[in-house]
Amino acid sequence: MVKRILVTGGAGFLGSHLCDRLVEQGHDVICLDNFFTSQKSNIEHLLAKRNFELVRHDVTEPIVLEVDQIYNLACPAAPGHYQYNPIKTTKTSVMGAINMLGLAKRVKARILHASTSEVYGDPEVHPQPESYRGNVNPIGPRACYDEGKRCAETLMFDYHRQNRVDIRVVRIFNTYGPRMHPYDGRVVSNFARQAIAGEDITLFGDGSQTRSFCYVDDLVDGLMRMMNGPADFHGPVNLGNPDEFTVRQLAELTVKLARTKSTIRQARPLPQDDPQRRRPDISLARKMLDWSPKVPLEQGLAKTIEFFRSIDLGRYRPPTPNY
Ligand code: NAD
Ligand code: UDP
């Protein structure tokens, strides 16, 4: 059945891929964004579609729209972006959640919230199951994002218990792919950009810290399965690829795939509170959503490098100086 679907942060990296899929399925899609960390080029190809609308709006302000489903993705996601204006980051998570939950309550829409593996902080349990309550520094440089997202999860469950809002919470682990902002400072975009330009690859720390990288198509599939999954399954559920790599391995693979002469260099010490290791336990997503990622890192990374080769970097304004 055709639904009216709101995607906040819809012009961003994940949001634009989600809009693509929803438009393709014939739904009426409203993409809402303030373009803090994205640009119109991500959704330019959708503007002429009859079932796609773009609204420039900031989720920290209320809005009324008649919709059946809300994917709440609006929030800067890269450390360099969310630490640029940390107070605004917390406002976006918390007030954004309140405004979108208020809307969901009013129009009786189902709402999915994009939470994050950062709710686990620098984890002492490995891999991370949803039952792990995390190890977050509440006053560190990542706290604006981590605690903002934790509070948004609290709001989701309180609106559900108190107001019977139909909620879905997903905890997204590091996701990469085409349309990442080339200057977002995230490890995949930095390494790909540097490798293509033949510049040094900037390892932070000795590169022994780990991450588990999920390709965007797999992640978007998980989001949609969760939104349309079992009626009484509200999450939180981890979505991510359980294949774990050190950051040095990622650098080596990027150099190999880009066929570059870049050297891998320890550029600076590990940033404060940078998690040492991260890998999702996805048993719950497998069981409840029959979901698991399909795209191996080598394949997804090759597509991402291809994307970075194809874009004109001059057209991208670094949204923050932190790249
Ligand atoms: P992104 O920065 O590309 O997209 C975020 C979008 O939200 C951008 O288009 C930005 O302009 C918009 N936005 C930011 N603040 C806003 C505001 N106040 N009002 C309206 N729009 C606003 O990042 P992404 O990687 O696509 O992340 C999307 C969501 O997924 C975020 O909520 C993020 O926290 C979550 N997430 C992503 C990852 C990942 O690895 N990509 C991991 C965990 C969680
Ligand atoms: N990192 C790195 N070089 C870079 C950018 C990031 O070594 O140029 C490291 C960073 O310190 C972290 C990991 O790569 O350990 C992932 O960083 P990212 O900012 O992509 O996301 P995070 O998972 O930390 O939110």
Structural commentary:
This protein is of the alpha/beta class and 323 residues long. It has a domain at 4-175 and 215-239: NAD(P)-binding Rossmann-like Domain (Rossmann fold). 36% of the residues lie in helices and 17% in strands. It is built from nine helices and 13 strands. The protein has helices at residues 13-24, 79-82, 86-107, 143-163, 187-197, 216-227, 247-258, 283-289, 297-310, and strands spanning 4-8, 28-33, 52-56, 69-72, 110-116, 167-172, 175-176, 201-204, 210-212, 214-215, 237-239, 244-246, 264-268. It has a seven-stranded parallel sheet, sandwiched between helices. Strands 7-10 form a two-stranded parallel sheet. Helix 3 (86-107) runs parallel beside helix 4 (143-163), helix 5 crosses helix 9 (297-310) and helix 7 (247-258) crosses helix 9 (297-310). The longest helix is centred in the N-terminal third of the chain and has 22 residues, at 86-107. The model has no long low-confidence stretch (mean pLDDT 96). Bound molecules: nicotinamide-adenine-dinucleotide (NAD) and uridine-5'-diphosphate.
Topology diagram in text:
Layout: E1 4-8, H1 13-24, E2 28-33, E3 52-56, E4 69-72, H2 79-82, H3 86-107, E5 110-116, H4 143-163, E6 167-172, E7 175-176, H5 187-197, E8 201-204, E9 210-212, E10 214-215, H6 216-227, E11 237-239, E12 244-246, H7 247-258, E13 264-268, H8 283-289, H9 297-310
Parallel strand pairs: 1-2, 1-4, 2-3, 4-5, 5-6, 6-11, 7-10, 8-13
Antiparallel strand pairs: 9-12
Helix pairs in contact: 1-6, 3-4, 5-7, 5-9, 7-9
